[in-house]
Amino acid sequence: MSADFMLRGGQVVTPHGVKRLDIAVGGGKITELAEEITGGPALDASGLHIFAGVVDAHVHLNEPGRTHWEGFETGTQALAAGGATSFLDMPLNSSPPVLTRERFEEKAALGQQKSLIDFGLWGGLTPLNLEQLDELAEAGVIGFKAFMSHSGLDEFPAADDLTLYEGMRAAKRLGRVVATHAESNEFTRRLTEVARAAGKRGVRDYLASRPVVTELEAVGRALLFAHETGAALHLVHLSSGAAVALAYEGKQKGIDVTIETCPHYLHFTDADVERIGAALKCAPPLRPKAVQDDLWRELLAGHVDIVGSDHSPAPPEMKTSENFFELWGGISGAQSTLNVLLAGGHHARGLPLEAVAALCALNPANRFGLPQKGRVEVGADADFALVDLGASFELGQLFDRWSQNPYRGQTFRGQVKATYLRGQKVYENGQFGEVRGQLLKPV
Ligand SMILES: NC(=O)N[C@H]1NC(=O)NC1=O
Ligand SMILES: [Zn+2]
Ligand SMILES: [Zn+2]
């Protein structure tokens, strides 16, 4: 196929290392990678690193039903500005949540109208919809998301043990992954009740109501069920090095498990929650520095598979209260995953660039059945994030729905200059292209 254009002169971050390569793009795909490709037209990428577009496996865009919290338009602008070319949307906090084929089709249609980048949809696994998992798989969900503790929304109830176990049996049969929010319901609910009954309402009281042991207990149980059912398990947003270590032990014993953490656990600590407040409330909560150090150690050892943003904004009135327990739990981070991995990972801790690319692009694409995504290789989609690796900057221009973004004003080294989706420019210098995303189904 003749090329539509070339990207010339860039340092290309391939799964096999960083190389000075030219890239030819034709029909939205990468058609050739070579040290020198002649012909034109060409874009000059000299001085830049070319990463595969980020595949953000964990995003809440809340449309339909809670578009005013965050929707496809602003949410995907933020993602694209952060170098993402695809994302996997969670079945909540859109309302009603994606528990049936009908809700899947509804959200898929909205995304195809409004999303700037490609997207897949998670379906829910709750006690309400065990009977609908087959139709969701047939419709094309990436996998099934279950909460092991209260989700924050009564319309998406937590999966009790039997629901989770039966859900995993079904997922195994259907060839889909089960993703779990792993915090113990028993533990977190009781600790919350006791604290609130005693009139506690501060940041430290909230943090103390969700200690690491509540995460470890749930991770252990999810691993047990995955072991017993043979299901593929994806542990979302692990917040502690100990939880990663426990899950990695399970993986080494042969459990089919992947391990996710989020940029906020890598970039912020409990001390930041005290300083910044509501914008950093999340569950599981941010941890002390020593726990964060453990988490980085696990990540640098290669025990973390995926870094996803868990972007989950809410309107300011839900992020404003004298009582920290009453605030919405969820962090706005769609735009800054690469920044955190490049500054905190590559520059500060020596994380190789191909490991950065694996964590936020290649590994999620592989895990969730998207072989055309997440890699700069011939035949893959021409999805790129063009990065000025040496540029230090203050993150000021944020495109997500609300201003309560804890990354505002943070300084990073490693800046996304432009993003290409299937060969089309979707973002450059604060401006967005006319591109529209397509629905991704796992193969
Ligand atoms: N419902 C929802 O978005 N919950 C997310 N927010 C958060 O802080 N943790 C979550 O799981
Ligand atoms: Zn969660
Ligand atoms: Zn989430």
TrEMBL record:
Cofactor(s) recorded in Swiss-Prot or TrEMBL: Zn(2+)
Statement: the UniProt record of this protein carries the keyword Metal-binding: yes
UniProt cross-references to InterPro entries, sorted A to Z: Allantoinase (IPR017593), Allantoinase_bact (IPR047604), Amidohydro-rel (IPR006680), DHOase/Allantoinase_Hydrolase (IPR050138), Dihydroorotase_CS (IPR002195), Metal-dep_hydrolase_composite (IPR011059), Metal_Hydrolase (IPR032466)
Amidohydrolase-related domain location: 50-426
Enzyme Commission number(s) from the entry: 3.5.2.5
Protein modification: Carboxylation allows a single lysine to coordinate two zinc ions.
Pathway(s) this gene product operates in, as recorded in its UniProt entry: Nitrogen metabolism; (S)-allantoin degradation; allantoate from (S)-allantoin: step 1/1
Binding residue positions for Zn(2+) 2: K145, H181, H237
Modified residues (N6-carboxylysine): K145
Annotated residues for binding of Zn(2+) 1: H58, H60, K145, D310
Keywords noted in UniProt: Hydrolase, Metal-binding, Purine metabolism, Zinc
Family as reported in the entry's similarity comment: Belongs to the metallo-dependent hydrolases superfamily. Allantoinase family. Belongs to the metallo-dependent hydrolases superfamily. DHOase family. Class I DHOase subfamily.
Function field: Catalyzes the conversion of allantoin (5-ureidohydantoin) to allantoic acid by hydrolytic cleavage of the five-member hydantoin ring. Catalyzes the reversible cyclization of carbamoyl aspartate to dihydroorotate.
Entry-linked HAMAP family: Hydantoinase (MF_01645)
Subunit and partners: Homotetramer.
Protein name listed in UniProt: Allantoinase
Organism for this UniProt entry: Deinococcus xinjiangensis
